[in-house]
Amino acid sequence: MEVDITGRHFQITPALRDYATGKIQRLEKYSLKLESVHVIFEVEKFRHISEITVLGKGLRTKAKEESTDMYAAFDKSLGNLQVQLGRLHERSKDHKIHDGGTGHEIQS
Q: Whole-model pTM above 0.85?
């Protein structure tokens, strides 16, 4: 899984990059064949905004949150994303593939 981290209007610290990368790696537990994750950190005056976009096979989902602290904004957006991925994971587990048969055995 490829992880891209972008900072808008501020310099990303190595501590923030390591924190985000470590948390993002935990998304692999949903086994949804995730291909890439793009994290955008943005600062506008006193607002710290975190946006996470996940791309996978047949999947594109996004979560965006803001707070007065960048770590808090990231944790909120990651929490929202985990809820979305959890729903998708449950749907994929509940989806049953049928063989297209009628359900009756052939009697001879």
A: no
The C-alpha atoms of residue 58 and residue 33 are separated, in whole angstroms, by: 9
Choose among 60, 101, 65: nearest CA to 80.
65
Number of Cβ atoms within 10 Å of the Cβ of 28: 11
**pLDDT tens-place values along the chain, 108 residues long:** 899 999 999 899 999 999 999 999 988 887 678 889 999 999 999 999 999 999 988 889 999 999 999 999 999 999 999 999 888 878 776 666 666 656 566 665
Fold of domain 2-93 = Double Stranded RNA Binding Domain (3.30.160)
Residue 2 φ/ψ, nearest 5 degrees: -90, 130
